[in-house]
Amino acid sequence: MNLAFRLARREMRSGLGGFRLFIACLALGVTAIAAILSFSRAIEEGLRADAREILGGDVAVSLLYREATPEQMAFLRERGQFVRWIDSRAMARPLKPDGRTTLVQLKAVEQAYPLYGTLELKDGGSLAEALARRDGVWGAVVEEAALRRMNLVLGDRLRIGEVTVEVRGVIAREPDRGLNAFASLGPRLMMSFEAVIDSGLVQPGSLLNWEYRLRLAPGGSDMATIQALTTRYPDAGWRVRGLADAGGGIRNWLDRLTQFIGLVGLASLLVGGVGVGNAISSFLAGRLHTIATLKCLGAPERLVFTTYFLQLAALAILGVAIGVAVGAGLPFVAEALIADLLPVRARISLYFRPLAIAAVFGLLVSLLFALVPLMRARRVPAATLMRGAVVGQGRLVWRDALAIGAVAMTLAAFTIFTSDSRRIAAWFVLGAVGAFIAFPLLARLVMLAAARAGKPRLAGLRLALANLHRPGAPTPIVMLSLGLGLTVLVATALIEGNLREQLMRRIPSDAPAFFFVDIQSTQMPAFEKAIAAVSGAGALDKVPSLRGRIVRIGGKSVNEIAVPSESRWAVEGDRGVTYSATPPEGSRIVAGEWWPVDYRGPQLISFDEALAKAFGLGLGDTITVNVLGRDIEARIASLRRIEWTTLAINFVFVYSPGTLDRAPHTFLATVKSTPEAEDAIFKAVTDQFPNVTVVRIRDAIETATGVLGNIGLATRVIGFLSILAGVLVLAGAMLATQRRRVHEAVVMKVLGATRARIAGIFAWEFAFLGLATAVAALGVGTLGAWLVVSRLMGLDWTFLPTVAVAVALGAMALTLAFGLAGTLAALRQRPLALLRNE
């Protein structure tokens, strides 16, 4: 070992020449993982530190459609400091002539709000003063986006329902807004609790969220309070949360986004691993005579392996250290750029676990890809090395292959067990293994096709085809190096493109123009008459609407059921509920039968097929939903496959008539319209029915597209990071085969070939190679994207040809650029200097 250390140290005296790509590939991948995991951890720490602000108290109680009883509120007040508010959507109608009626996210708060944190106004004023009643007019504060949409300034007045309010402040920060900012269709408007009572929006069955918060005395336990509430009122039908549940939606969103981008970052590191292998192969090719000399002097294989392993280990540690350092610093830069866009305040710091995970990934990847060329090199006899054979042609014995397999298994296990979703990580591992198998196989097929392509009459083309399949050809290295990076980019581009396709191009041409929410039963005749009076308006499609929360699945409490993570949304909040005598439009019964039109027997339900599969339910099983504080158990009579892209009104739960039709409820409605009639419909509804919320389909799609665009930007950045890794790897692959190109160029020069002829031969070779790589990456990336879109997301698949063309042209351009750059260096080589060494 001492001798190996001395030899390794002396080898490194020559500097890092030839290892810059090695270090760059490692540092790039480690940087991506370290930055992603560190920023995610910073947001998690922010969630923990601000849990009370995010939740709005120590204990949160939520009710839909109805407020808590006086007895329940008295019980809550006994437990600590108490505040309540109402959260809902509403239409804000400016009184000034040039104002624009806008959908807003309404929040009506009591004077004690907020219990934790501070609602900050841009002018620095007090919330209580801004919302107070002055000269008979209530006050309101809004987000700045609301002023722009409604064309208002401070001091202007508007109507919410039947009450007039004056805009007196702009919200700079709302402590408990959280992820709701991403889910809202409109900007925030906040007014006093008393003002919303005067507005007339509080009606039986109105779609209002009643929120109650408790601030416990010092030392009080949120879990003990929750236990007391659930014990005292087991059938209250409310949702109770403690500090551990603060930011639950943010955590789920963050976990999914972090995992997706983190896996793409790991893919970049694996692409860089190929560059590590290429760089080591190139390095060992330049050390042929050194290795041969050591072996001829009696050095055993173990000494040769240990010497170069120590040297490469030192360089790997350097690359990983650079990646960890840069990755640890990037969150500080990101905070300065996007802090205002985050739903919580990130606690940026140096966290050990994310950086350690990134470092371990870097070391495992470098070890995996370094072992292959090292073990092959040590098995090549000294005599063969003296003849200048290619190092990579050495064969692996079973013990070497077993060691490499053990490292690969360790990397796979580490990937799975450090992931939040082991199932998705396992699929990623299988996909990575498949890619590393597929590209070498595809390269062999390309080489076989080139060998059997015959002999074209054009000499340059004939020599280019021969270069693709001859011994030592760069075809396998280049296809694996560039192909992996292109595959990641193709997959991310197709996934994002398909999501956009679902939002925009899959929207039917006859989709409704408006959704109307919260139409009171007593208003429906007048509402239908108002719509019919507008020229260009289509027929009104109306559906009764309630909200309910799943409490039991198959007779068991939801807390006892292991619901898959991708279906947790269905049990973590309230879901839309309706009843109908006939099957709804936009869905197809795939199992069971619909009940008769005049059915009035025991309660039946038609359930979404995909959700039933996730819950492990089938025909005849029961599901219990709490609606308006009452648990309603129903037997599944049919399963439906819902086509959400039709934009018809559809519900996961559709009950048989007989129970819900007697409960207080409102209506949802949609209407189709000509473009010219849209403004008239909007004005008629907002003028005559101030309590009805109007949602333009176009506005909703633009909001969803904006959110998707932000996520897509992150995925594209990481996708291009993979391409950058692929470019570095491609450069390493070209360096690894540079000696062969120099030798070929010299031989062709000696035989009389001009520089233009030699450059043309290499151009044909790299053009074919780039096209083959693009086709392979397109196939593998498309397969991966199809699996994600159709299997994991359950969406319809659309192939996007523009992605194919862009990838093909990009791959050819990259391969040609790097190939010809190496060729120009080969053409500058003087034949005499090389021939003297042959």
Explain how this protein is built.
The chain has 838 residues and is an alpha+beta fold. It folds into four domains: 1-57 and 253-420, no CATH class; 59-241, no CATH class; 438-509 and 698-838, no CATH class; 537-673, no CATH class. Strand 12 and strand 13 (556-557) form a beta hairpin. Helix 16 (422-451) runs antiparallel to helix 24 (755-792) and helix 24 packs antiparallel against helix 25 (801-827). It is elongated, with a radius of gyration of 33 Å.
Spell out the blueprint of helices and strands:
Layout: H1 2-11, H2 20-49, H3 51-55, E1 59-64, H4 70-77, E2 81-94, E3 102-109, E4 120-121, H5 127-131, E5 138-142, H6 144-150, E6 157-160, E7 163-173, H7 180-183, E8 188-192, H8 193-199, E9 209-215, H9 222-232, E10 239-241, H10 248-285, H11 288-296, H12 301-338, H13 352-379, H14 382-386, H15 398-417, H16 422-451, H17 459-469, H18 475-503, E11 514-520, H19 524-532, E12 537-553, E13 556-557, E14 575-579, E15 587-592, E16 604-608, H20 609-615, E17 622-627, E18 630-642, E19 653-655, E20 666-673, H21 678-688, E21 693-696, H22 697-736, H23 738-750, H24 755-792, H25 801-827, H26 831-837
CA(first)-CA(last) distance: 35 Å
The shape is: elongated
Instruction: Extract low-pLDDT stretches.
Output: 388-393
Contiguous helical run count: 26
Mean pLDDT: 79
Strand content: 15-25%
Oligomeric state? single chain
In which range does the helix fraction lie?
40-55%
- Report strand order across the widest sheet: 2-3-8-5-7-6
Gyration radius over CA: 33 Å
Instruction: Please outline the major beta sheet.
Output: 6 strands, mixed, barrel
Structural class of the secondary elements? alpha+beta
Could you give the count of β-strands? 21
Number of domains: 4
